[in-house]
Amino acid sequence: MTGFHSSPDQPPRRPLIAILTGAGISTDSGIPDYRGPNGLWRRDPEAEKLVAYDTYMGDPEIRRRSWRMRQESPAFRAEPNAAHEAVTRLERSGTPVRVITQNVDGLHQRAGMPDRKVLELHGTVRTVTCTRCHARSSMQEALARVASGEPDPPCLVCGGILKSATVMFGERLDPQVLGTALGVAKAAEIFLAVGTTLQVQPAASLAGVAAEHGARLIIINAEPTPYDALATEVIREPIGSALPRLLAGLEESV
């Protein structure tokens, strides 16, 4: 590749690689996606109500169902897969890597990515937050209370309604996290969109922003996306094998 190296008396400069990940990167870990052919929303359209903010806040039965769903969530049993591990290997090689994820499962961090290099656009399922006083605590603590007989556990600080520290339908993304993600997209020289339909905004727009600012855009997804025409490469192969191979090639070439 050209344009990625400094003068001979300086160490080579490696390009910034940004990796936007969606639900498809975690399906090999046993976490189903949402909008794919066998996705959660297609199998159970009613499930969307459980993560709609206004419905959640206004209906105690929806909250009780949400807590039961969290008790059964595969996210807490899931382990990082080969794709997550490949991203961590690339970062540990010394290549500048930033992960921007639409996922809430925390598997990038579980695979060893430093917290500061992972931008969780939609929050995390591993923490709960109070909708009144904004106190945060462990999801596992809240689930233990549910298992002990509290079907809709209130905040222990102020008695307010607790929710997962994820961005529900009807909530805005954290403007600071989104702003940082935009900055990464503009600065990236290589931008990968992995396992995402690129249909949920504003996350999806990051691929377009990166391409507009000159990044080489690579999309790995089972189905077509609205941004395929902007990509220099579109890969339809299984993520668990395609991403490790691609990242190993990028590490060698930069």
Automatic annotation (TrEMBL):
Q: Which Gene3D superfamilies match?
A: SIR2/SIRT2 'Small Domain, TPP-binding domain
Q: Where is the Deacetylase sirtuin-type domain?
A: 1-254
Indicate which residues the UniProt annotation says bind Zn(2+).
C130, C133, C155, C158
Q: Fetch the PROSITE patterns from UniProt.
A: SIRTUIN
Gene Ontology terms for molecular function: histone deacetylase activity, NAD-dependent; metal ion binding; NAD+ binding
Q: Which residues form the active site?
A: H122 (proton acceptor)
Tell me if Metal-binding is a UniProt keyword of this record: yes
What Pfam families does its record include? SIR2
Enzyme Commission number(s) from the entry: 2.3.1.286
Q: Which SUPFAM superfamilies match?
A: DHS-like NAD/FAD-binding domain (SSF52467)
Sorted alphabetically, which InterPro entries does this protein's record hold?
DHS-like_NAD/FAD-binding_dom, NAD-dep_sirtuin_deacylases, Sirtuin, Sirtuin_cat_small_dom_sf, Ssirtuin_cat_dom
The entry's keywords: Metal-binding, NAD, Transferase, Zinc
EC top class, as a word: transferase
Protein name listed in UniProt: protein acetyllysine N-acetyltransferase
Which organism does this record belong to?
Streptomyces tubercidicus
As recorded in Swiss-Prot or TrEMBL, the protein's gene is named: cobB2
